[in-house]
Amino acid sequence: MLNRQALENYTFAGTKFTIPAGTKLAIPVYGIQTDPDIYPEPEKFDPERFEEDAVAARHPMSFLAFGDGPRNCVGTRFAHYQSKIGLATILGNYKVDVCEKTTIPFEIDKGVPFLTIKRGVHLKISKA
């Protein structure tokens, strides 16, 4: 969830609905990123959604993992690089399997204010 505050009155185009200046807003990132109008079959693992052509065809605010604008995450690039290096290191040296303790399909824990999987994801990692 991204928390923001309207700095000025904002009226949505084609409507009479206005957000008054000073209104505190909570932007539901998970709701946007699992909207079937933006991402067909949102629960399906589909890395092709993030290929250049697919990304260019969507509204730029349809993926906000790190926020956007002047208050976006300062560690965005670092997080991307760190994730890539970590995954490459693990996948290059180890075999990774889901453990029997992991519930499949995953269930989202709705009692937590951020995206969390109930009972966690348990992995078996063995030398390749």
UniProtKB/TrEMBL annotation:
Membrane topology, record value: Peripheral membrane protein
Positions bound to heme: C73
Cofactor: heme
One term under GO cellular component: endoplasmic reticulum membrane
InterPro entries: Cyt_P450, Cyt_P450_CS, Cyt_P450_E_grp-I, Cyt_P450_sf, Insect_CytP450_Detox
Pfam families for this protein: p450 (PF00067)
Main location: endoplasmic reticulum
Molecular-function GO term, any one: iron ion binding
UniProt protein name: Putative cytochrome P450 6a13
Organism: Melipona quadrifasciata
The organism's taxonomic lineage, starting at the top: Eukaryota, Metazoa, Ecdysozoa, Arthropoda, Hexapoda
